[in-house]
Design goal:
Structural class: alpha+beta
Strand content: 25-35%
Distance between the termini: 67 Å
Oligomer: single chain
Radius of gyration: 31 Å
Strand order of the largest sheet: 16-20-21-28-25-24-22-23
Number of helices: 20
Bound molecules: zinc ion
Length: 655
């Protein structure tokens, strides 16, 4: 390949800043080889001047080159996209009539949308497809990039009778078209791909589903085949294990098993019903935060679930989201229009505006566990993490310009307190900024945005938060600091959020009288440490696997009488503990004690109190702690002291 080019040398800059000289036309793979053979064996693709491309593509100018391996997101996604081609090759070998639409990589794995031409592909066929993929992978076929003229490309797929690729081609410009071939399979694709199929050492077909051609339900239903591949069998095994764990911890499954919440088609999709135990858990979380908020100077307010359309015209929500919201509710008479509340902020603005405010009133911190309703397509709904009605642990802080940074820092303290108390150690913070290319999407002046963005940066830095910045992720009224939590399986979720807002106070014409006796505009901070009760509980369930800390556990104790004879004593113990705010139940069933213990374990009861003849005579209980086993017998008083100390251990006071 090198002899096609001149002897001109080019300068290659590597990620560590080092510079090396190579002959013009050198490929990233050759660069890798010149560094070490071990490295070259792992190179999947390369980022050349910021663009991901095939590792064997010649480089024609001075460039920065980052070699991509399995450890890079771009490396992985090139691997998985290339695996989609491999799966297509296997499918074509097994089902010669299959036609192909598109096969993109996913966060985990890839899919290919195919027209099976009447063939049915089901779970029973997965193994056959996997085996074929591995057989083809072992041939170590190169992914060969073939630039094509549009005429030739059209001719190829016309001959093949593939109307899907012809459809794709119709939108492509001549001169920009490439084919990729590996083994016996040729696809229309702009790449990039891994060097050869030999890198793929393990394959699993995950699922098949229907998917409309181009996502349009008027079009033909295609078959979407999901797969995942790995460079080592061991990694596939680990992935499958993780999936099984995730299934066990799925909050939808545990929520049902532990009697926390349910859904009813009759009530409506995406509208959770909290069962007594779930309501108890939620109540505990609310009162935990409420206590901290009182200490942090918040005041509780309550506002209705609907608001007049005019309110949302003023706030800008109608203009921004009206079309995609639940549509207005009309009154039978008087022609009034109301909206289900999508956010609590406009109501809180009107509380602020309900009387004249002075600088002495600020900061004014109004908190509400406010239920809001947002329309989501039914296909997007998912357990408690994606719902149509949810309760935010919302608050709005109205303050002066000078107070913004300080208030922001106080909110960060509160969020960190919440996370720490609930065992979320692994989180990151994201500064969500405006997209500078698309300023029209946002309300407010450049000056206000710059001011707010810098205030967030400074506050986060001062609190020692490690942050990443994301352009285009801000709310329409202001920049945000979002807290992303990793659950026990390493999945990322957005929970808490803090947002600075200079726009709503303007839209609602909010004012305060300053020390100079002049009118000023307050700034507003929106914040929600949990995010929403629904999502937070979902993550908490998955993070703990349903083994909640003692203070949160809906039932803290189960009292298990050894036989019917000790029912009365069990009831006495129960009442005594209830008076001490220790929650639980007596297992009155006529079952063997072994069975009662097992069931309490399945229900993830933190503490079991077994009572029989000896306990009843001595006024004691035999205590078993989940995960710790037998703690011996204690008097009721000793047990109360023990339980209270354990409950309080995990909830330090705020500040
Ligand atoms: Zn491709
Ligand atoms: Zn708000």
């Amino acid at each position: 390949m090198l002899d096609l080019f001149t002897n001109k040398m080019i300068k290659i800059t590597l990620p560590d800043g080092s510079e090396r000289e190579y002959q013009e036309g050198v490929s990233s793979m050759e660069i890798a080889l010149s560094i070490s053979e071990g490295l070259a064996r792992n190179v999947l693709a390369a980022k050349v001047n910021g663009k991901v491309q095939d590792a064997n593509l010649p480089i024609l100018e001075n460039a920065t080159v980052q070699l991509l391996t399995w450890n890079d997101t771009d490396g992985k996604s090139t691997f998985w996209h290339s695996s989609a081609h491999l799966m297509a090759e296997a499918l074509e070998a097994l089902y010669p009539k299959v036609k192909f639409w598109v096969g993109p990589p996913l966060e985990n794995g890839f899919y290919y949308d195919v027209d099976t031409n009447g063939e049915s592909i089901s779970q029973d066929d997965f193994k056959k497809i996997e085996d074929k993929m591995l057989e083809l992978a072992r041939q170590k076929n190169d992914y060969v990039r073939i630039p094509m003229s549009k005429v030739d490309a059209i001719e190829y797929f016309t001959e093949k009778g593939d109307e899907y690729k012809l459809d794709l081609l119709s939108n492509l410009e001549d001169g920009s078209i490439t084919f990729y071939r590996q083994g016996n399979f040729t696809d229309l694709c702009r790449g990039p791909h891994i060097p050869n199929t030999g890198f793929i050492k393990a394959a699993k077909i995950m699922n098949v589903a229907g998917a409309y051609f181009k996502g349009d339900q008027n079009n033909k239903m295609l078959t979407r085949i999901y797969g995942i591949t790995f460079p080592k069998q061991k990694e596939l095994d680990e992935y499958v294990h993780l999936l099984e764990e995730a299934k066990k911890r799925d909050h939808r499954k545990l929520g049902q098993e532990l009697d926390l919440f349910t859904f009813s088609e009759k009530v409506g999709k995406g509208l959770p019903l909290w069962l007594p135990k779930g309501a108890m858990l939620r109540e505990r979380l609310e009162s935990f935060l409420r206590k901290a908020q009182v200490r942090a100077g918040y005041q509780q307010v309550v506002t209705p679930h609907i608001g007049s359309k005019q309110l949302y015209l003023t706030s800008g929500h109608w203009e921004k989201y009206g079309k995609d919201s639940f549509q207005p509710i009309n009154t039978p008479e008087e022609g009034e229009e109301f909206l289900l509340k999508p956010m609590n902020c406009p109501h809180h603005c009107e509380i602020y505006a309900s009387r004249p405010r002075s600088y002495r009133d600020l900061p004014l911190r109004l908190a509400e566990f406010g239920t809001v309703y947002r329309y989501e397509q039914s296909g997007e709904l998912h357990g408690l993490t994606r719902v149509r009605g949810f309760t935010q642990d919302d608050a709005h802080i109205f303050c002066t310009d000078d107070q913004v940074e300080d208030e922001f820092k106080k909110v960060i303290d509160l969020v960190l307190y919440v996370f720490k108390s609930l065992g979320f150690e692994d989180f990151s913070a994201q500064v969500s900024l405006r997209d500078p290319e698309n300023k029209a999407k946002y309300f407010g002046s450049d000056e206000a945005w710059d001011k707010a963005e810098n205030a967030i940066r400074r506050a986060a830095a001062e609190k020692g938060l490690k942050t990443i910045e994301e352009l285009g992720e801000a709310a329409f009224y202001g920049p945000k600091l979002d807290f992303m939590v990793k659950d026990a399986l390493g999945r990322k979720w957005q929970l808490g959020t803090i947002q600075v807002d200079y726009q709503l106070p303007t839209r609602f014409n909010l004012e305060y009288i300053g020390s100079d006796n002049q009118k000023h505009r307050p700034v507003m901070i929106h914040r929600a440490p949990f995010g929403s009760m629904e999502r937070f509980v979902a993550i908490l369930i998955e993070n703990t696997g349903g083994n909640f800390p003692l203070w949160l556990s809906p039932d803290q104790i189960a009292i298990l009488p050894i036989s019917e004879k000790y029912q009365d004593y069990a009831n006495d113990v129960f009442l005594t503990l209830q008076e001490q705010d220790i929650r639980g139940y007596v297992d009155h069933r006529d079952e063997k004690i072994g069975r009662k213990i097992r069931d309490a374990e399945v229900n993830k009861l933190p503490l079991m109190l077994i009572v029989g003849e000896k306990e009843a005579e001595e006024g004691k209980v035999s205590v078993r702690r989940k995960g710790e086993g037998d703690l011996g017998s204690m008097t009721i008083g000793e047990f109360i002291d023990y339980a209270k100390a354990e409950i309080n251990k995990n909830i330090p006071q705020f500040r």
